[in-house]
Amino acid sequence: MSSTATKHVAVIGGGILGVSTAVHLLRQGATVTLLTEQGLASEATGRSLSWLNSAGERSTPYHQLRIAGVDRYRTLFAADPSREWLQFGGGLMWNAAGESEVTKARHAYEKSIGYDSQLLAPEEIGSVTPGIDASAVPENAIFNPGEGWVSLPDLVNFLMEEFHALGGQLVLNAGKASVMVEGGRATAVETATGETYPADAVLVACGAATPAVVKPLGVEIPNGSPVSMLVVTKPVEHQVAAVMNTPRAAVRPNPGNTFALDHDWYEGHITEHADGSFTIPDDVVQELADESSKLIAGNPELKPASWKIGYKPIPGDGEPVFGELGRVPGCFVAFTHSGATLGLIAGELLSGEILTGDKHPMFATFRPGRFS
């Protein structure tokens, strides 16, 4: 830690990026105040498919950051492979009928960058990964053995045990917090009711709300966040280990023999209300469950137990936004689509930047200043 080390950091946001960064800061001796609008994991972290991957095609820096992200989860997994909330059972994806060439091209691209990728005919799937109804696969599928999934609310609970053990201060239900600036620097966080928490540095990690929080500081971060939903089913006997990404449903195992379900085709059925709440017809939720059932061996009846709807954080250009605001020294941001995959690595790298002032090269293309 350099002599200009930041001592006290206020973190706005009780999702995976805020919690991970807070714990990494505490490990390095900082004093941390973590403020949440409502509870922990109450927004996107509480409704993320949280598939750990860098499949498909994206910019090289983003791919490298995601690979590092998956690596940190592997280390956590290796420490205790019995954790029900973090597993590496691979990922299985396929495209719609008639798109087998698209699937082949994706496989070829993944192979070209050294990403573990197997192109399978439907009849080969059963010998590679269990519990799948191969009749749902039109022509071919890609299996990525190195991928996994995490239940982020469970991970947040796990990290918060360390947060409290290391003396972090948690402020729940702070409402919409704002960054206070004095002499051009971020100096404190103010809650909706007017309490202030002085700090040497502030991290804004509020998911889809991040651009709105930094806007009063004169910083524009484009927001491309769509509304999405995560459904958790009632328990059902199954053998599925892989995360499945298919034309009509994305499905992953979830603790307690349940499944987590997601997709985007139903987004037009979601209604946003004046009070900020969302609703969706029950039959649309059941349709997603029925589509998911077709993917699972034996086609068990899937019954939705709960579903959560809200904004899925996606920056306007699709790339992550990490680091200090150029026009407001001492104020840092963390805003990304891949909050799950990047959760641990982003907290590690951001905490280093906040405490030392040294900019990490892996964030070079992700700086908030690129939009100004």
Automatic annotation (TrEMBL):
Keyword Oxidoreductase: yes
Stretches assigned to the FAD dependent oxidoreductase domain: 8-350
Entry keyword set: Oxidoreductase
A Pfam short name: DAO
Keyword check for Oxidoreductase: yes
EC number: 1.5.3.-
GO molecular function, one term: oxidoreductase activity
A GO cellular component annotation in the UniProt record: cytoplasm
Entry superkingdom: Bacteria
Name of protein: FAOX-C
Originating gene: faoxC
